[in-house]
């Protein structure tokens, strides 16, 4: 498999404090990767090193095979970056701001004007394209920021806290745009955020960073099993009638580690998905399963659990 | 077009379209016109100069209570440079545009080079138009065409003016890099301006008098020594350097600065010097001014290249 972003043992020391401490990270083509962590955990520093805007103390970053520290221009040609608190020239219109960016990217003007039209359409700012950016709301600025990452037809887009300080409707719009970018335009996306349920909704994989270290990485499900279940699967079942024989039978199933009962609900912890065996046991012991499901992990739980344990 | 070119044109359009520039430009034009007009009303002042250089008088003669154009430039010119430069980088930072621009495929120095060049060209255009206005007024009142010697002297003076204001521009840019907040950058720049145009006189006097006290009855050697120290300190100030260049270039009879003994000037022919000779007198000052501007720019450059881009 081709990794388009490879971060190896990346370290950045600011005044003797390790802001980023031996980070290893891989991102594959076409995925939406969620980069999570509390404020000050090292997300933005990692991103800046990814773009060659900050020099790492040690370690290396490769984007599409280009070393970001030694060859930042090549990386910046194919990478769109939406910084935290993005801003634009307030006395220029949205269209003029984007045109400036296309000129900085040496995109010929006959090509750029159609591209600008296209991205403004995508982020829903076409009606206000000729208004001065000074009149824009936070949410509109953020969407213009996303448009600015897209005008240069990037292969990778890095979004740093794209939904921070935006009302719910605006957040919804932005998440839709991001999903569209990822799924329809096939752009690889690195999304940093601490707003968990949004990340969970759109990301294929996540990595959690804390105090400069990547503590866990994988799909939301994998991470959840690792962090909350300690590698186990939780099954919840509701039965029509709970009797001691049934409890005993379930406990005897191979792979079940613990059974808890409350009312006619059962919480079963096992080392793999044993729903079939459990339903069979329920029926054989004179009861009926009304509900039987594996527990979903929400990122919030993972996150809270993880950082509470620290 | 290269990245520097793109940034340069963007900054140029910004400067020329801004209200700030318009106000500055109107003030400067009015000053230039009024000074030149008053000088033309006072033509007998111009007779201080050799007759073939009468046109130069429009730049150096003062009419009544109003100071000369040269004085205006050396005194208020720095404000133009500062106003064009003090928020060059800090405004980009506070607006959050700096990370947008630098995440495009441009080298980091393109931003600061483009901005500095755009500022310098703006200054050059601004002063070219004022100089032309004054020249035009001069030719109109005097009624004869300027000769080559006059034009070349005015050309050299024009270059010195652009370099001098360019120094203040690069100082403004330097502070806009060093300070995160635009207001601190503006205040520090203004402080430097006040220091170099007002306080340096007092400081130079105090230090010179401390090092070589001049008693009531004294020898010329002591006065000469005191004066040498005073002038040495004054030379730190770009305003002093510029004033000396202006004096030597615009007044062809000026042969030396500072303390001159009567033995040194005995037998002197009161003919005007050729431009090359006048330039010889102020060559160190000219080079000093250029070096000051370049040092300021180089420091900005180095600081900016090593600075963190993070907007918070």
UniProtKB/TrEMBL annotation, chain A:
Pfam families, per database record: ABC_tran
MF annotations from Gene Ontology: ATP binding; ATP hydrolysis activity
Coiled-coil stretches noted in the UniProt entry, renumbered to this chain: none
Residues annotated as domain ABC transporter: 5-236
Record keywords, A-Z: ATP-binding, Nucleotide-binding, Transport
InterPro entries, alphabetized: AAA+_ATPase, ABC_transporter-like_ATP-bd, P-loop_NTPase
PROSITE patterns: ABC_TRANSPORTER_2 (PS50893)
Family: Belongs to the ABC transporter superfamily.
Name of the protein described by the UniProt record: ABC transporter ATP-binding protein
Organism taxonomic ancestry: Bacteria, Candidatus Aerophobota
Automatic annotation (TrEMBL), chain B:
Cleaved signal peptide residues: none
Record keywords, A-Z: Membrane, Transmembrane, Transmembrane helix
A single MF term (Gene Ontology): ABC-type transporter activity
Keyword Glycoprotein: no
Transmembrane segments: 21-39, 59-86, 116-142, 154-178, 190-208, 281-304
Gene Ontology CC: plasma membrane
Pfam families in UniProt: ABC2_membrane_2 (PF12679)
Protein name: ABC transporter
Organism annotation: Aerophobetes bacterium
């Amino acid at each position: 498999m081709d990794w388009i972003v490879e971060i190896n043992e990346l370290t950045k020391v600011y005044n003797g404090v390790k802001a980023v401490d031996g980070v290893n990270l891989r991102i594959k083509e076409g995925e939406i990767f969620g980069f999570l962590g509390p404020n000050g955990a090292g997300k933005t520093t990692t991103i800046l090193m990814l773009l060659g805007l900050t020099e790492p103390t040690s370690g290396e970053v490769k984007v599409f095979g280009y070393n970001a520290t030694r060859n930042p221009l090549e990386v910046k040609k194919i990478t769109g970056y939406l910084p935290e608190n993005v801003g634009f020239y307030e006395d220029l219109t949205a269209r003029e701001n984007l045109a400036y960016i296309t000129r900085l990217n040496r995109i010929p003007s006959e090509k750029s004007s159609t591209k600008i039209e296209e991205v403004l359409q995508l982020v829903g700012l076409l009606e206000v394209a000729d208004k001065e950016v000074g009149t824009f709301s936070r949410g509109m600025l953020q969407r213009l920021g996303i448009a600015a990452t897209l005008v240069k037809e990037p292969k990778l887009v890095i979004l740093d806290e794209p939904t921070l300080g935006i009302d719910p409707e605006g957040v919804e719009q932005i998440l839709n745009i991001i999903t569209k970018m990822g799924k329809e335009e096939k752009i690889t996306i690195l999304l940093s955020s601490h707003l968990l349920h949004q990340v969970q909704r759109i990301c294929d994989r996540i990595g959690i960073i804390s105090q400069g270290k990547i503590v866990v990485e994988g799909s939301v499900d994998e991470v959840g099993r690792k962090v909350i279940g300690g590698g186990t699967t939780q099954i919840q079942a509701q039965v029509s009638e709970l009797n001691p024989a049934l409890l005993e039978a379930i406990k005897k199933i191979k792979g079940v580690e613990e059974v808890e009962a409350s009312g006619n609900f059962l919480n079963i912890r096992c080392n793999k998905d044993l729903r079939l065996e459990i339903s069979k046991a329920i029926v054989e012991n004179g009861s009926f399963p009304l509900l039987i499901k594996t527990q979903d992990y929400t990122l919030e739980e993972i996150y809270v659990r993880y950082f509470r344990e620290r | 077009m290269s990245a520097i070119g793109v940034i340069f044109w963007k900054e140029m359009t910004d400067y020329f379209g801004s209200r700030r520039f318009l106000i500055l430009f109107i003030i400067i034009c009015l000053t230039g016109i009024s000074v030149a007009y008053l000088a033309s009303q006072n033509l007998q002042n111009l007779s201080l100069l050799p007759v073939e250089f009468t046109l130069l008088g429009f730049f150096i003669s003062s009419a009544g209570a109003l100071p000369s154009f040269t004085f205006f430039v050396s005194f208020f010119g720095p404000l133009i440079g500062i106003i064009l430069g003090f928020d060059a980088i800090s405004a980009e930072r506070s607006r959050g545009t700096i990370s947008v621009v630098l995440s495009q495929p441009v080298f980091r120095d393109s931003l600061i080079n483009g901005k500095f060049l755009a500022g310098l060209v703006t200054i050059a255009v601004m002063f070219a138009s004022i100089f032309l206005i004054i020249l035009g007024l001069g030719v109109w009142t005097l009624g004869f065409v300027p000769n080559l010697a006059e034009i070349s002297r005015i050309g050299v003076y024009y270059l010195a003016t652009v370099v001098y204001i360019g120094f203040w521009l690069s100082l403004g840019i330097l502070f806009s890099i060093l300070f995160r907040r635009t207001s601190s950058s503006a205040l520090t720049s203004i402080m430097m301006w006040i220091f170099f145009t007002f306080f340096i006189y007092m400081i130079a006097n105090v230090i010179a008098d401390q090092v070589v006290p001049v008693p009531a009855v004294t020898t010329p050697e002591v006065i000469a020594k005191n004066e040498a120290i005073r002038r040495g300190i004054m030379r730190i100030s770009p305003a002093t350097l510029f004033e000396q260049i202006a004096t030597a270039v615009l007044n062809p009879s000026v042969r030396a600065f500072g303390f001159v003994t009567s033995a040194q000037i005995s037998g002197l022919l009161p003919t005007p010097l050729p431009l090359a000779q006048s330039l010889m007198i102020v060559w160190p000052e000219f080079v000093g001014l250029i070096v000051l501007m370049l040092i300021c720019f180089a420091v900005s450059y180095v600081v900016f290249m090593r600075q963190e881009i993070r907007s918070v």
